[in-house]
């Protein structure tokens, strides 16, 4: 009777251990918790956005500050720029060999060289003359500044490491506005995919501007589960960034604790992207699906269950063998006693 009790206690211990292991092995989710400076200058704003009519003269200003303890002679240069890659980084067209159909370099009046005293803030007037025959659409340029000490004047100090303000101008009229979604997908750790073990995961969109004016789209991604229940909404292009004509820009957003809170996602999900752009609020959409399956957790749970069942089966077989052998031993003992009595 004692051995039977010990066996039952052993079986209960195995089951309890397996249950405890499965409870403890739940998924762990990571908690993720304008001025520019350079060349001893501060500059603001870093970007100027202007809307104007053909033939209009626009006046604005750029603020410069000397952040050194000595005087600076500040010179400038006006250049065109285009998008360099898909992250929105501007590439300056300095040597003049590459033509830009969206250039406004010749529209800016020359800016005189200026001198700044230590810690002095100065506003430089910027005059932009829009040609009367300017076609509706977007035009772009950058005003670059560099500061040098007075004793270095005339030494040919380069503007290659200068600080600048980007200028975006939209000439009013019937511009061509056309944006398309080149790609909408999911990724994790910079690797595209559709099956993930857990959050956070990233959504990325590659938007192509096929028009002749820069666009600043807004949008939202709506995520629903396999039963059609909304799980989360993720905003796109926040804070707003521009897409230049004839270029593709990549945007990326995270689906993690910041958007879903403490929810644990499991199964198939659908992400619906809606982008709004242009003066007429045009809309483009695209959808993608992805899975969140904690496969390593499930695999480990299966191994534990199979291992536990194996131990249980082996233990039961040993127990049955023990009962049978014990039963046989008892019968032999009784038979031996009867034999001894018959001899007497």
3D architecture notes:
The protein folds into three domains: 36-171, Immunoglobulin-like (Sandwich), CATH 2.60.40; 177-291, Coagulation Factor XIII, Chain A, domain 1 (Distorted Sandwich); 294-327. Helices cover 22% and strands 41% of the residues. It is built from three helices and 19 strands. It is elongated. The two termini are 34 Å apart.
Features:
Coagulation Factor XIII, Chain A, domain 1, alpha+beta, 344 residues, disordered N terminus, Immunoglobulin-like, 3 domains, 22% helix, 5-stranded mixed β-sheet, 6-stranded mixed β-sheet
Quick description:
It is built from 3 helices and 19 strands. The strands form 4 sheets. Strands 3, 5, 6, 7, 9 and 10 form a 6-stranded mixed β-sheet that branches. The chain has a 5-stranded mixed β-sheet with strand order 13-19-18-15-16, with no helix packed on it. The chain is α+β, with helices and mostly antiparallel strands.
What is the domain tally?
3
Rg calculated over all Cα atoms: 37 Å
**How would you classify the helix and strand content by structural class?**
alpha+beta
Largest sheet: 6 strands, mixed
CATH class of the largest domain: Mainly Beta
How would you spell out the order of helices and strands? HEEEEEEEEEEEEEEEEEHEEH
| Multimerization status | single chain
| CATH level-3 fold name of the largest domain | Immunoglobulin-like
Task: Report the count of strand segments.
Answer: 19
Tell me the overall shape.
Answer: elongated
Helix content: 10-25%
């Amino acid at each position: 009777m004692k051995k039977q009790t010990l066996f039952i206690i052993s079986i209960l211990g195995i089951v309890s251990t397996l249950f405890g292991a499965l409870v403890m092995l739940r998924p762990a989710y990571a908690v993720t918790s304008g001025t520019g400076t350079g060349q001893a200058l501060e500059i603001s704003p870093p970007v100027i956005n202007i809307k104007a009519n053909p033939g209009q003269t626009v006046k604005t200003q750029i603020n410069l500050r000397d952040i050194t303890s000595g005087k600076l002679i500040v010179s400038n240069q006006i250049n065109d720029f285009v998008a360099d890659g898909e992250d929105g980084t501007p590439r300056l067209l300095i040597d003049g060999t590459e033509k830009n159909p969206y250039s406004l370099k010749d529209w800016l009046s020359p800016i005189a060289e200026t001198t700044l005293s230590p810690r002095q803030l100065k506003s430089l007037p910027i005059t932009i003359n829009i040609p009367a025959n300017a076609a509706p659409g977007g035009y772009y340029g950058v005003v670059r500044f560099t500061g040098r000490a007075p004793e270095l004047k005339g030494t040919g100090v380069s503007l290659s490491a200068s600080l600048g303000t980007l200028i975006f101008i939209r000439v009013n009229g019937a511009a061509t506005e056309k944006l398309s979604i080149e790609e909408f997908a999911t990724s994790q750790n910079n690797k595209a995919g559709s099956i993930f073990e857990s959050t956070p995961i990233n959504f990325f969109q590659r938007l192509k501007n096929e028009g002749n004016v820069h666009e600043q789209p807004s949008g939202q991604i709506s995520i629903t589960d396999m039963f059609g229940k909304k799980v989360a909404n993720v905003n796109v292009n926040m804070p707003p960034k521009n897409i230049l004509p004839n270029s593709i820009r990549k945007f990326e957003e995270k689906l993690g604790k910041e958007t879903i809170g403490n929810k644990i996602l499991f199964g198939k999900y659908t992400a619906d992207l809606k982008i709004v752009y242009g003066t007429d609020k045009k809309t483009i959409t695209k959808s993608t699906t992805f899975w969140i399956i904690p496969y390593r957790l499930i695999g480990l749970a299966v191994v534990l269950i199979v291992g536990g069942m194996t131990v249980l089966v082996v233990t039961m077989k040993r127990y049955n063998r023990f009962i049978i052998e014990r039963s046989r031993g008892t019968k032999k003992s009784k038979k031996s006693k009867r034999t001894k009595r018959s001899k007497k």
